[in-house]
Amino acid sequence: MATQRYIDIENRINALLHKRGLYGHVHVAVQRFCNDFRAYLISYDAIGKGNAEITLSLLENDSNLTDGNILNTNFRSTLKKLVSPVLFADPLFIELFPILLNSKGKGVGIGEMVLPLILSGYRFSNIGDGTLFGSIKIEIKQYGASIKPIKTGITQKGLVDTLNNQYFNGAPPGYTSTKLFNRHLATVTDPGAQYGEYFSRLYPGCDIAKLIEDVKISYRSPKDFNSAVGNFALKQYQQTDGWHAIMFINCKTQELVNIVDVEHVSGLGIRYTPRLTRCKDTQAVCDGYVNATFK
Predict the structure, then answer these.
(1) Which of 14, 173, 256, 270 has its CA 20 to 30 A from that of 226?
(2) Mapping DSSP to helix (H, G, I), strand (E, B) and coil, where does residue 105 land?
(3) CA-CA distance, 15 to 133, in Å (whole number)?
(4) How many separate domains does the chain show?
(5) Helix (H) or strand (E) holding 78
(6) What is the pLDDT of residues 226-238, one digit of tens each?
(7) What is the pTM of this model?
């Protein structure tokens, strides 16, 4: 009887994880996540830390999860706070949650694979990091990840260094170091013309009019300049990559920021670091990408 019970539980686990886009996935990290979910759920049940059938019943019913529509809004939270009160009250799930939360692998960061289990209508996906309600693309980025204004291959690596030499005597913009920033600032004699030509060549095919207007106002402040470039990069990245929402997750603190409305991000604490020099940078993206963190 006990053996049949656990066979039934395992079948329910596989069905649940398949529904959430996890079971049967080719990625090694996702396969390991599924194995961990199965092993720990059954073992915790066996040693009396909860009831596997009750936990599965909660997870199988979307009404017990946090409403996936939350991903249609800008917000800042933690992964733990995304767990619904119903799931949070289940003793076995709370034992299981930290293990699943910290599961990761190459190309799959902490928290990515647990989201389908705690958000209704959300699935792990091959076409992006996740999909909401079947087709809405959700992008998941780890803290400090790159925002790519243009697709890889449009410009050659090292273009930004050529532009720095041509327009700013080799002194790249965007540094927060006072010494390096002042070195750049000393080369700016006509901000509209210099930054206009610089960014039009760095981001070919992009509408940079708003960026140049912002930069002309903010170029004397490293923070404001970087924010102007970062906000441009975020808006452009949404257009070129086609995501509806982008979520940045800090693996160490489990804090997260979700962005849908790229026009109103000022209250989320996002900090941008434009990479406006290539040098020995081996990042496999076009020059002029921006790294995003939050404070």
Answers:
(1) 256
(2) strand
(3) 18
(4) 2
(5) strand 75-78
(6) 999 999 999 999 9
(7) 0.91
